[in-house]
């Protein structure tokens, strides 16, 4: 595991000069970043799971996925292929031709009976004429279906990926439990900080903040279905129905009629979401917890993500529901200043600190700080001891910082995107580490180093040293 993180390190760059570029090589290929390797191995693991017999729906999802991948959306408009398919069957195999007609009965008229609708075409001895007849009658119906086809299939592929992720979570409940345990450590530390925070005390909001901080809980990918349980069930019923159709054309049209639930979150990427009061880690993040991690790595790789998401609950949010009645202006200014300063020191492209970025910037500084303190508190005795087998360079404290940076090693993210409320990864990592007081000590950075120079005033978002007033 350490190797995965070690791989991204650029020894040419001094950690005190630019930690992000030291920990995340600039020329690393997209396939060799830690995040990429995790995502890929997660996808493989999921494919394996789908092949297993743990759940009857697994093989169906895979079968359908493969089928949909093979579909050419253009074909759906092409009734000629249906015509040809029927003619061929009519000439060579009457039973198959009859089955195809039954499929269309089922699909279009929702009829199982053999004496309904299309079935009488089987008595026509002129196969060409029967096929023409069939197509004429289908065309009207097909047109509606065809319009939906492409969109529906693309949605389906997204949906099936997410649905597989959901099934994977069900099979890996222990990882959710572990993430909850780690989250409770953060909560415990946060509660102490809230009680001591002067701007909360002076504005009489300690109780409100405590309540809000207590509401957040880690949930699993059930979130996908919690929001649209009915659509998921309907889609599954339709999938079931389509798999019983035997004719290629009817099957194709059948799948095109499936209404697939919207999937806004890609559960196959390393990510997390705060839908207060629900906090959700995507599956690849959870899968990191299944690796053989030291506490430093567990905190750096996963708890840091929980910490960031926790931050979103506490920052003044521009989203629909404002959880916190007010947020300290002094804190806001301090956070933004740090990001502006880091931006000017480390920019590689577009770089500006906008007010719409405060939620993310605040969550970054808050989360980073809380996570490091939580780790330090629980593992203080080993913090600066060398790690066996890596005596010369690794201590748990160092490994924490490398791990936390590794989650943000995306090659494309060295530049801010004006539509993205997050700063570029490079700025995020360097700003947060500049603000963690122990960083300088752990890497022995002197005051003249760029990392230390880039550090603005120490921001105390919560705790006894936080500002007096909001
Ligand atoms: Zn965020």
UniProtKB/TrEMBL annotation:
<dbReference type="GO" id="GO:0016485">
    <property type="term" value="P:protein processing"/>
</dbReference>
<dbReference type="GO" id="GO:0004222">
    <property type="term" value="F:metalloendopeptidase activity"/>
</dbReference>
<dbReference type="InterPro" id="IPR024079">
    <property type="entry name" value="MetalloPept_cat_dom_sf"/>
</dbReference>
<dbReference type="GO" id="GO:0005886">
    <property type="term" value="C:plasma membrane"/>
</dbReference>
<protein>
    <recommendedName>
        <fullName>Peptidase M13 C-terminal domain-containing protein</fullName>
    </recommendedName>
</protein>
<dbReference type="InterPro" id="IPR018497">
    <property type="entry name" value="Peptidase_M13_C"/>
</dbReference>
<dbReference type="InterPro" id="IPR000718">
    <property type="entry name" value="Peptidase_M13"/>
</dbReference>
<dbReference type="Pfam" id="PF01431">
    <property type="entry name" value="Peptidase_M13"/>
</dbReference>
<feature type="domain" description="Peptidase M13 C-terminal">
    <location>
        <begin position="290"/>
        <end position="459"/>
    </location>
</feature>
